[in-house]
Write a structure and sequence with these properties.
The protein is mainly beta and 968 residues long. It has 14 helices and 45 strands. Helix content is 9%, strand content 46%. Strand 29 and strand 30 form a beta hairpin. The two termini are 43 Å apart.
Length: 968
């Protein structure tokens, strides 16, 4: 049975849907946050099968009425929220990703699309969309960009983790998180900038008593991707007024280290062709590079096209068949690349919180977290191009030297397979402290908090060639004593006395001592610090015929600082003095990849907001209830101006069975410090001027710039929803919500070397802003290209969210079902003078746009056939989608097929069976049917054979997890 068929069989067999997260919880019940921390269950009503869970929750949290819904500071019932809200317990998320984190489980929910995680292609640069960590786990609602998704920890904004102001959500302490609330609508008026596509709020269990601990281990069927996870938490009362709780967790993931070899289905696949009608793109396998070998390919002179074999002799190069791309061939002796399929990680999270009741009405708390994480990945072997050698090089065999006697020098291209691959490691140390006071006065709740967050991100690229040392080591001669030495060591011993000659003639020729001399590393260190203070007061101001009118007033101040340093700067050039080959004074960079540095830059923000809840009708002829909700906020950025945001919504509860809701909002996303002030960096490369006939390719600088004139993006979102609870099917709820979001003045990074940008300049007659990104000389020849963020884009999307929940009993045993689905047919990225990209239902787009299926679905089944056994099933499905979001590109096979996986978890109550306290043994099988993700590839990554699966698909295959948890 195919994955597609399994999904529909599962949905049909489970009658559509599932229960709310709290009903499926099997660990410590959550307690409510205070009125200052918006975080309630989506519904307060409990079906019969939920009675036990609801009862336990009430016992732990007697002040349930004080809970406030995420997305509002005054609404205390999720069913009364006009903004679509999904609440998911941590236990439910565990069934979605048994071997992963809470955030891995979130990324399996349909509302998330285009997120980056450990399965994203690792990069060899710390800039761009990766934000300093190409393996960070960052959430992306509706694929509108991670920077348009606001992440909260217990209602408070989390200081950024990455330099581009996004949050690596794996850094949130997970042991005491009870659930996650997801608001899928614009709420900048409530929470401020960045909440354009929505909010993800990790909700803390504030009153945990006792202890809990777990240990688990997992491994894939292929013997890799091993996981180890151990953690625990405890909490206790301190006297009559205090409470303390703390947690720690350590998690290790070994990753999948080889993309080209670790899975049989990943057979050196890559997109080939030119994307035209005459030469369409297509997915090929067994793809090899046409102009590189592992032993060295001669690229000039009479022996051009021949190669060095394993022993260093020159032999013919056996070519593969033409692939349609000049870079590559199918089969043959050409080399290929091999990057990580998923990135290893190590992480430790620690958290502590102390609460104290000063009086019966005033409460203070202090909490802190430390999160230490390291990601590692391999981006491939060093790719060496156009190396120049003397025909008398000491490492040449006599036969090779004789064959090369016709010219004094020759050039070689080589993939350096005999050396370690380039290793990218990111080490993150993040600390968070939050202190607050809150209380009540008459009908009002008030609170004030202060937060300090600090993130230190160190990105290191290892095993890169130092081009100056490489040039010296490649020029090998026979020294006075008959030993092979570096030519530079004879002519300039003070500079190159330690030079170790490097033999590249043959795939395994380099000595370890030579590699140690040539290979080095570059480190990029960034600090992001955020301080913030906020205060709020809320309560009912008067009563009307329909009930109390509630108002919330809030104010916030925050300041964010950023700085960066680098051990290898873009301006660092090789000193070519005394070097005969492979070094050009004033041009050759010291390392092929370098990082910028930045002095401290900062911005401050001041905000004030009001929210009002007005009931209009109650128990009338036309409505059981009707209420309006509105919010407005004034925001003043020291760097990019001041803005007004607002939100208006309504909830019409027709009767106990039918409820209608809707919102309209104006939201903003202010430019980040890096958007505004990123340090200037220059990268040289071969760029094509497509405006010339014929097109001209030249080795030119590409210059990255910030833009201090950027202003905030402005989003407008409309939602309309329906909630049904039919009386004839007790315990069943279905919700459907429509959403429509348009982001104007959107910030887009414009690349001057992009062919569409060049054409946009040409079509404008030289008047377009694009023309400022192309530097030309008096003769009209391009001399440099610029890359800079600009407020010129427009992003538009719409679609439907659906959810169905059902709680019932079979043969007297509880059955909980839940299904969620998202339909998002289009995500338009528009820029003047450039063809529109439609990323909805597409795999790849320009500027780092990620895959975005138009249909995603998730289904949960929870069944307890006996008192001692619980069965959890989870199914995730995405439909097929186009390989590219660029309409002009032509593909032979336009679509990537659909993909679905099934997870099974069995939990045995060992507390009852084996009398081991309150404990459980659990076994999970992820990707139960070992579904193979479809091959694909990036259309502009044709030189990277093996980059062949979609970011949205987990390539691990079937995997197993066994664990034990205990609490008391």
């Amino acid at each position: 049975m195919t994955s597609h068929h399994r999904l529909w069989a599962l949905l049909a067999g489970t009658s559509l849907c599932v229960v709310t997260g709290s009903a499926m919880a099997q660990v410590a019940p959550q307690s409510p946050p205070s009125s200052a921390q918006p975080t309630p269950p989506a519904e307060t009503e409990a079906a019969p099968a939920q009675t036990e869970a609801a009862s336990a929750e009430t016992e732990a949290a007697p002040n349930v009425a004080d809970i406030i819904v995420t997305g509002s500071r005054i609404i205390r019932n999720g069913s009364a929220s006009p903004t679509p809200l999904t609440t998911v317990s941590t236990d439910l998320l565990a069934s979605a990703a048994p071997a992963g984190t809470i955030s891995d489980g979130l990324n399996n929910l349909p509302v998330f699309s285009g997120s980056r995680n450990q399965f994203s292609n690792p990069g060899s640069n710390a800039t761009g969309v990766q934000g300093g960590n190409g393996s960070a786990n960052v959430l992306n609602l509706r694929n509108l960009g991670t920077y348009r998704t606001l992440v909260l920890f217990d209602g408070h904004r989390i200081p950024p983790t990455l330099y581009n102001s996004t949050v690596d959500v794996d850094l949130i302490p997970q042991e005491l998180i009870s659930r996650v609330d997801i608001v899928t609508g614009g709420v900048s008026a409530v929470y401020g900038s960045d909440a354009v596509s929505g909010v993800v709020n990790y909700v803390l269990n504030r009153k945990f008593d006792g202890f809990r601990a777990h240990v688990e281990s997992g491994i894939s069927q292929s013997g890799d991707a091993a996981t180890r996870d151990i953690g625990g938490a405890f909490g206790f009362k301190v006297g009559d007024r205090g409470h303390f709780e703390a947690s720690v967790q350590h998690r290790e993931y070994d990753g999948i280290l080889d993309r080209a070899f670790d899975r049989d289905w990943n057979n050196l696949a890559a997109i080939q062709g030119a994307g035209t009608a005459a030469n369409p793109y297509y997915l090929a396998t067994d793809v090899h590079l046409a102009t590189y070998t592992f032993g060295g390919l001669i690229t000039n002179g009479a022996l051009r096209g021949q190669q060095f074999n394993q022993t260093g002799d020159i032999v013919p190069f056996v070519a593969g068949t033409a692939s349609g791309s000049s870079c590559c061939q199918i089969g043959g002796d050409g080399a290929y690349q091999n990057a990580s399929m998923s990135s290893p990680s190590r992480g430790t999270q620690a958290f502590a919180r102390f609460d104290y009741d000063l009086t019966s009405d005033i409460h203070v708390y202090l909490q802190g977290a430390a999160n230490l994480k390291r990601n590692t990945s391999y981006t491939g072997w060093n790719q060496l191009t156009g190396l120049v050698f003397s025909n008398t090089n000491a490492f040449l065999t006599p036969a090779s030297r004789a064959a090369l006697a016709g010219a004094s020098t020759f050039t070689v291209n080589e993939i350096l397979q005999g050396a370690p691959r380039i290793e990218a490691s990111s080490k993150t140390d993040q600390y968070y402290v939050n202190a607050g006071i809150e209380g009540s006065l008459a009908n009002f709740k008030w609170n004030a908090t202060y937060t300090h967050g600090s993130s230190r991100l160190e990105t290191t690229l290892s095993n890169m060639p130092n081009n100056q040392r490489l040039a010296a080591a490649l020029d090998a001669v026979v020294g006075p004593t008959g030993q092979v030495v570096c030519q530079a060591a004879l002519t300039n011993p003070s500079a190159y006395g330690s030079c170790v000659p490097l033999n590249l003639f043959g795939a395994s020729s380099p000595s370890q001592s030579a590699l140690n001399y040539v290979l080095g590393k570059a480190t990029f260190l960034t600090h992001t610090i955020q301080d913030s203070a906020d205060a709020a007061i809320s309560g009912s101001v008067f009563d009307t015929w329909a009930g109390p009118v509630s108002v919330a007033l809030s104010g916030e101040w925050r300041r964010q600082r950023f700085d960066a340093s680098s051990t290898v700067l873009p301006t660092d050039l090789a000193d070519c003095t005394g070097l005969r080959y492979n070094c050009v004074a004033g041009t050759t960079l010291l390392y092929p990849t370098s990082f910028p540095q930045s002095d401290t830059v900062a911005q401050s923000v001041k905000e004030g907001a009001i929210e009002v809840e007005v009931p209009l009708l109650t128990d009338s002829v036309i409505a059981k209830s009707l209420s309006l909700n509105g919010a407005a906020r004034y925001t003043d950025y020291s760097t990019s101006g001041h803005y007004f945001t607002w939100k208006a919504g309504a909830v019409w509860e027709v009767d106990d069975q039918i409820k209608l809701r809707g919102t309209i909002s104006r939201d903003i996303r202010a430019p980040t410090l890096y958007d505004l002030f990123q340090p200037t960096t220059t990268v040289y490369g071969n760029y094509t001027d497509s405006t010339k006939t014929p097109a001209v390719t030249a080795y030119l600088p590409s210059i990255n710039l910030g833009n201090a004139d950027l202003t905030a993006e402005v989003g407008r979102t409309y939602t309309a929803g329906l909630v049904l609870k039919p009386n004839f099917l007790r315990g069943f709820t279905v919700t459907v919500d429509y959403y429509h979001t348009v982001v104007s003045n959107a910030i887009s990074v414009i690349q001057g070397f992009n062919a569409a940008v060049q054409q946009g300049c040409l079509s404008s007659g030289g008047t377009s802003i694009y023309c400022t990104l192309i530097q030309r000389d008096a003769a009209g020849n391009a001399t440099a290209y610029y890359i800079q963020p600009q407020n010129i884009a427009r992003v538009k999307t719409y679609g439907w969210d659906g959810e169905a929940d059902y709680t019932t009993r079979i043969a007297g045993r509880p059955l909980n079902l839940r299904a969620l689905i998202n339909y998002q047919p289009h995500i338009y990225y528009e820029q003047p003078g450039i063809p529109t990209i439609d990323q909805g239902g597409a795999g790849w787009g320009l500027n780092g746009l990620m895959p975005s299926p138009s249909v995603q679905a998730a289904a949960f089944v929870n069944f307890k056939p006996t008192d001692n056994l619980t069965i959890d099933l989870f199914e995730h499905y995405r439909n097929k989608f186009r390989r590219s979001g660029v309409a002009a590109q032509v593909f032979k096979d336009e679509y990537v097929r659909s993909f679905a996986t099934t997870n099974l978890t069995l939990t045995f109550d060992t507390g009852s069976t084996w009398k081991i306290a309150d404990s459980a043994l659990y076994l999970s099988v992820t990707n139960l049917f070992n579904a193979t993700p479809p091959l694909s590839g990036y259309y502009s990554g044709t030189t990277s054979a093996g980059a062949s699966f979609e970011f949205s698909d987990d390539p691990t295959g079937r995997a197993f997890v066994v664990g034990f948890r205990i609490k008391g």
